[in-house]
Amino acid sequence: MSELAQADPVPAGPGFDQGAAYVRGQFVPIEEATVPVLDVGFSRSDVTYDVVAVWEGAFFRLHDHLERFERSCRELRLMLEHDRDGIASILMELVRLTGLRAAYVETLCTRGIDRAGVRDPRTFENQFIAYAIPYVWLLKPGDGDTGMDAVIARTVRRIPSASVDPTVKNFHWGDLTRGLYEAYDRGAHYPILLDYEGNVTEGAGYNVFAFVDGRLLTPSSGALEGITRRTILELAGREGIPAEAAPLPEETFRAATELFATSTAGGVMPIVSLDGQPVGDGGPGPITVRLRELYWQAHEDPRYITPVDYSS
Amino acid sequence: MSELAQADPVPAGPGFDQGAAYVRGQFVPIEEATVPVLDVGFSRSDVTYDVVAVWEGAFFRLHDHLERFERSCRELRLMLEHDRDGIASILMELVRLTGLRAAYVETLCTRGIDRAGVRDPRTFENQFIAYAIPYVWLLKPGDGDTGMDAVIARTVRRIPSASVDPTVKNFHWGDLTRGLYEAYDRGAHYPILLDYEGNVTEGAGYNVFAFVDGRLLTPSSGALEGITRRTILELAGREGIPAEAAPLPEETFRAATELFATSTAGGVMPIVSLDGQPVGDGGPGPITVRLRELYWQAHEDPRYITPVDYSS
To answer: ipTM exceeding 0.90?
Structure first.
């Protein structure tokens, strides 16, 4: 499938071969995309974002991503200067500039810079930013059959929802970064964090699913409500696989015969080991493989896709 | 005191009248100080920082701040490219460029930009940044006698230490920003957050102290170990005021006859109302006023200060 996505390459505009960004109202090469050190989007992580993929020259679930992005902004009381069509046009132009047939496209809104001495966050001028870069794989396509080596983090717990709402996409990754270090230090690559009640939440940029006793489960709280996660719940439903969001205790997760992770950056990714022990028979399970097929097939479904116009 | 700090102004270098920054190895006007959108210091809030004040032409407790900054970097496994003397020299030069006699000086270290597709945070090239801007007052000096109107946040709890360590200075302010919105929405300005056990932690950029039953208490966990907080504990000790870091339940805090906040950005700041009710008699209490005097006197103590050389 990655071959197809790279087919018929469209040449990038001058300077845009590494990616393109929209910052302070201008289209610039990705290398020039910066945030002021004094923007509280950096200095207080007061920012939200979303990521939508372009695959085979079309956005996947663009309006679902933009709807979630708008909701995130509302929850944080960030004002977007563009409406949904305006943002969609900017994203189209970004992808067109890069010529990418498979892209990772991010929208952001930062609180902005305080006027000297005025801390009232209601008075800041919020800043919209977007960029498009080559598609990002959390799990390299060549690793698709070996899959993810995951660990349940022992040294850190996921930030609780009553402190930072994980359904509003945010950059509060201190816990996930600690988990990432722990995973690498333990010879693995993919941390999964528990909440303070011992339930599974999510990983460093991915939701998780467990197939246990004939049911497909994904955590109902403490995690991002991912669009890929939503797609998998929909596809499983159509396929007749019982699937639901529910609390997912660590013991239940460990009892699963199949585990996988989902993300816009990679789709459906089998988890083949957990804390060094094989999951199931140590390879991608049949439910996982079937849902991964359906997931990529959905990228040809007109209900889900918005083609990019590459003509200038 | 603010008059003194502004005495004998030194002219700023060209372009540095709003502040100066050190970014990517260069000294630039503060307006040009930026972080790449792709630096995980922004996009994962994978960064630490510290703030030291310059007062009357001298750094206050410079080496204590740099020691804490180095410790924060170690805890996050960030590599500093400069040693302590090297950083001190850069900060001196920044203040010299601005000509400021009273400055807010920040040091930062970000994780940096991942090399395409390599998520291992151990492999990133970490980035040192610093800047100097005019001194920041959390509580305006003219408000020193009226003091802070604080609220205990009802809608949000402080991120727990087992998720993000508050003693490692960080930009995970989502909870504090929610608190700030709540405070403003309730007609006040200064939120104070509780932890999940109902103990007081800290505010949006300040530690808190309560004078209760003849003892001065400040939270022993869930908060930054502020240098101003440390200074106050030391000064109270010398003054014969029983003072200690201890768990501080909400009820104990509410029973205090005096409350104040501390920060490098403003020193000792009386809290004169809590949730709309006066604290004590509704003005700065005698212990608070005495400690504030001692705090500013300490800015003349050669053990604490490092004069800036403004000659070029």
So the answer is: yes
Interface touch A35/B42, C-beta < 8 Å: yes
Q: Chain B window 70-99: which residues touch A at a Cβ cutoff of 8 Å?
A: 76-77
Backbone angles phi, psi at A254, to 5 degrees: -70, -20
Using CB atoms, which residue from A108, A157, A164 is nearest to B174? A164
Contacts of A14 (CB under 8 A, 6+ apart): none
Angstrom CA distances, B311 to B10, B12, B62, B102, B304, stand at 9, 11, 20, 16, 22
Angle between helices B62-75 and B227-239 (to 10 degrees): 130
Distance of CA B200 to the CA centre of its chain: 18
Question: Could you tell me which of B243, B227, B225 has the C-alpha nearest to residue B288?
Answer: B243
Bridge partner list, B274: B150, B277
- Residue indicated by tokens 């998998």: A232
Cα gap A115→B94, rounded to integer Å: 22
CB contact (8 A) between residue B156 and residue A162: yes
Contacts of A267 (CB under 8 A, 6+ apart): A228, A292, A295, A296
pLDDT digits (tens, 9 = 90+) for A136-190: 999 877 765 679 999 999 999 999 999 999 999 999 999 999 999 999 999 999 9
Could you give the maximum distance between any two Cα atoms of chain B, in Å? 60
3-state secondary structure of A297: helix
| Pair B29, B23: CB distance under 8 Å | no
pLDDT per residue over A224-243, tens digit each?
A: 999 999 999 999 999 999 99
Put simply, whether B157 touches A (Cβ < 8 Å) is yes
Q: Which residue has the tokens 């300005």?
A: B189
| Spatial CB neighbours of B7, under 8 Å, sequence gap ≥ 6 | B56, B101
The distance of B240 to chain A (nearest Cα, Å) reads 35
Residue B137: which of A23, A117, A158 has the nearest Cβ? A117
pTM attached to this predicted model: 0.95
Strands, sheet with A58-60, edge to edge from the N-terminal-most edge strand: A26-29, A20-23, A127-134, A103-110, A47-55, A58-60, A305-307
Distances (CA, A) of A62 to A5, A58, A132, A138, B205: 17, 9, 14, 20, 38
Contact A174 B46 (CB under 8 A): yes
